Amino acid sequence: MIKIWALLGLAICLEIAGVICLRFSEGFTLIVPTVIAIISFTFALFLVSRAMKKLPVSVAYPVWAGGGTAGVALLGIFALNEDINTMKVLGILIVMVGVILINIVSETKSGC
Hints:
Layout: H1 2-24, H2 31-51, H3 57-78, H4 86-110
Helix pairs in contact: 1-2, 1-3, 3-4
């Protein structure tokens, strides 16, 4: 099961990389970040699909999407110097709590 969670973690990292490359692709006009974004998203989707062979979709997808969302928001704040405010921090925390709750419920009901 650790291998499945590692795949999902790598999928989250690839999704974050893809989104950050989108930011630098200038609307798909710069070739290098565009290609990296497409490759990152492709592999992220592949890894999520592999994780879904063992994890319920109700766990795998929210963890992937929520982890990616929180990760991109944190990178935007800390690496790209985007504004930080109370509502943004609260939103990130809500996403993270939601992912944790989904995992807790899924572990007790499905043995994941």
